[in-house]
Design goal:
The chain is α/β, with parallel strands linked by helices. The chain has one domain (10-252): NAD(P)-binding Rossmann-like Domain (Rossmann fold). The protein contains eight helices and nine strands. Strands 3-2-1-4-5-6-9 form a seven-stranded parallel beta sheet, sandwiched between helices. Strands 7-8 form a two-stranded parallel sheet.
Amino acid sequence: MNTIDLKGKKALVTGGSQGIGAGICRKLAACGADVVINYYRNKEKAELLASRITSEFGVNAWTCYANVASGSDIEDMFAFLDNKMSGIDILVNNAGVETVTHVLEMTEKEWDMIMDVNLKGPWLCAQQAGRRMETSGGGVIINISSIHDVVPRKGLVHYCVSKAGLKMMTKCLSLELVDKNIRVVSIAPGAIYTEMNREEIMKFGVEKFEKWIPSGNIGEVEDVANAVVFLASSLSSYIHGADLYIDGGYMNNTIQYDPRPPRRNSNGQPGSLGSDQNELQPGK
């Protein structure tokens, strides 16, 4: 049973046809919101999702094509939204792309593509949504970032920089729009199972991830979607410009050779390390 009520709210989710975006669309609808599902390549998946949302939750759901790297596509998408919903209360900037390329081999075209989708697109969408929210009395803009907005990764300099920029953009937008009753926040997922990366995670090794992530498990799409509906609701009305990391503590466990300190026994003496604990000390 949902305890968050978004009945009557109007939402747009970019990149909403699959993965985390689709999970967000479903959760918003489950809480009562009408949803526009933006897609770029996956028209059939978007239309199937909209059909299921309408039949399962009894809300309105529409699909809309747009390449968020294109300003004209974004203008057309918001014109579509105006026609269908006459305004917007919740924008989820979820669309994003990544490639893995060595920094010395990365092309200017590849760099620009990542920046256009991951950074320019959310800015343009936030601008369009903000103008409408300003006249309607307010709203919420939620940017889906990544733990790599602060954690560097080889082969992903363009991606990491785009997400770091999105984090700062969230804070700047929050400052500029707070007096319009518009809240702007970001969510940064860690390792999350999606239909696209589940096979790669399995190939790499679930056990490795479970060992590295302090919570002991890889996240699910619903973990992110739950956070979105909370931040979209009045329950989070005092949260402005914040970054919420959803990673099972992954970011806090980057030094893999650190041993876990042993618990003391009933006599106050140090206990022994368990068999699964690495006794390698830093610097050795």
